[in-house]
UniProtKB/TrEMBL annotation:
Subcellular location: Cell outer membrane
Topology of the protein relative to the lipid bilayer: Multi-pass membrane protein
Matches recorded under InterPro entries: Beta-barrel_TonB (IPR000531), Beta-barrel_TonB_sf (IPR036942), Plug_dom (IPR012910), TonB-dep_rcpt-like (IPR039426)
Family the entry assigns: Belongs to the TonB-dependent receptor family.
GO cellular component, one term: cell outer membrane
Protein name: TonB-dependent receptor
PROSITE patterns: TONB_DEPENDENT_REC_3 (PS52016)
Cleavable signal peptide: 1-31
Amino acid sequence: MSPNRTVHDRRPVVRPLVVALSALLPLAAAAQEAPATKDPVALDALQVTAQRRVENAKDVPVAITAIQGEKLDVLGSAGDDIRFLAARVPSLNIESSYGRAFPRFYIRGLGNTDFDLNASQPVSLVYDDVVQESPLLKGFPLFDLAGVEVLRGPQGTLFGRNTPAGVVKFDSARPSQDADGYVKVAYGSYDTWNVQGAYGGPLTSRWSARVSALYQRRDDWVTNTRANAPAQGFEGYDEGAARVQFLYEGDDFEALFNLHKRKLNGTARLFRANIIQPGTNKLVENFDRDEVATDGQNFSDLETWGGSARLQWNLGSVTLHSITGYETAESLNHGDIDGGYGASFLGAGNYGPGFIPFPSESADGLPHHRQWTQEFRVESNEWGRFDWQAGVFYFDEDVTIDSFNYDSLTPGNPQTGHAVQQQRNKAWAAFASGDFDVTDKFKLRAGVRYTQDKKDFTASVLQAVDGGTPVSGPYVANTDVDDVSWDLSGVYQLTDNINAYARVAKGFRAPSIQGRLAFGGVTQADSEKVISYEAGIKADLFDRRARLGFSVFRYNVDGQQLIAVGGSNNTATLLNADKTIGQGAELDFEAYLTDNVLLTLGSSYNDTEIKDSDLAVAICGGGCTITDPTTVIDGATYALVNGNSLPQAPKWIHNLTLRAGFPVNDSSEFYVYTDWAYKSAVNFFLYESPEFRSRSSLEGGLRLGYNWDYGQYDVAVFGRNLTDQVRVVGAIDFNNLTGFLNEPRTFGVEFTAKF
């Protein structure tokens, strides 16, 4: 047991879940007593596109979790952003120090805590077959989706941008010749509105279209108690997004065009000074999450838009695919990083809330960004025992990043620093993948991808006043690398309903460059390479009333890219660890307990460890307790992190949903839906400190509803984070014991009409 865990930590984890399940047992029994339908209920076959073609998930040798339909709607009912998926899938964590604008993904412990707008991540996000490389593109809202797939382990053969940890894949509902749509309106705590809808149908006998839109807003619900501060309320947002699609279906040709846009206005991540008790990971006494005292500005503005053209030609024995994508983003995110107000200089005294060694207020902007991607892929059409696909991929990204510093101790918060970075990243790849039916029961799959990646980078410090005159620089860095990723797997049919599989894969992430000149200058990390081993079973059980997926895995990362952030000098330094290892197991289970009671369970165990006896990182700037061995380098103290787990990598994740329906007649029912997610403690930084290690968390939701007219209409009341659990989910370590929190408890009502 970790020294930071106590028996008391476990009680709030277990009790709410036990109480909720106990309350639902009589409901489940009542649902079981409902009149049975003529045909027993069974799970639909789970169709996925993990191998770039539609297949039954049971036949795919990759650990996959899919979320779709009602479950996806329930989890997103409170208007939360993409982070609501965290811990709802085995081995998946998502966090952000930017709020809704910049999610960071972790699969099996592999991720990137880097807050730079130029940061790359080892988890790739693919939206409608187009990779979203910039971290500001990864938070596009989830609405009108056909489904979400999370692919764990390296996916570099078929998904071509930085996938050594895995892929999170979103697919929008497509247009069709069948007219349909929906409208959903939800209202809840803090004057929260979540309104979305879609409509699609035929334009001609060949053309169809679909329009989807979303609007979400929430009032500022955290009050700034600092008098005469620039901002008096926080944590509100106003967000809109829309997507329009046109589909042409010819005899041997299909074209799907997609245009989408997002606009977000709100507050940036709200940092709270001195909220952690020294020597522990508990909140200070009398902490009030509805209040904060800070003297800086706080806002987040983000606008993205893009488009894609997905074309396919059926040429008889093969099908040719072309996927062209364009994305662009513009943003400015401004926050009071020290989380309070005032500062103490040369013994001048303390200012609230608590001691703040020095003020820190900054902003990061993306005045220019654009990304082009192009893929051509050819796949075979039922070549018998052997099927294959091959193609080429091109990526071109151009980005400019502004970083600003401000003086919150001077009226008007004048700008005191301005640095700019520019990067052009071009990459191309060629790939091939195939599967061969060795026997009727045994299938082999293999794939290979060659990638060439080049980055040209410059950074400069500019005059704070005019923003155009260079003070220092330009600092130049360049990378030019190539690599070969591959995978080999086999699927064996043990019975008609149970498959076993094994897979070994190599993943690759291109070098990274960071130029935050106010935080340590230009640093660079070399390529990282992952070898992953995985085996598992996938089964349909009890006449398809239940579905099981179980996997075990182990991976080795050579040269893992890590970011050492903060420390007493407030630096942000890219580095490579000599080696990282991870191992664990994952479970996905779904079953109809009765015809009207559906249960889903997910669980994962992830054990990660940094293996580098020489790796030393700067320690916190104040207030924390370092438990790692330390060393002195050039007069400064550093922590030796060999043996530590990776940051933001929970060892345990568990999730559960239970839906009980109570039919009124053939076309209507009352229902109860509850969902719970548990996540064990994580380190926020590379070094270990009790103050900067989260407490375990258990968050649950409940939905009570009634639907009628065969599910065409639905009205429900819901609650999220029912136990009102308050947890620190991230921290700032260079200044004081500053942290930021999870989402609050919310309640609401929702109406949905489908047509």
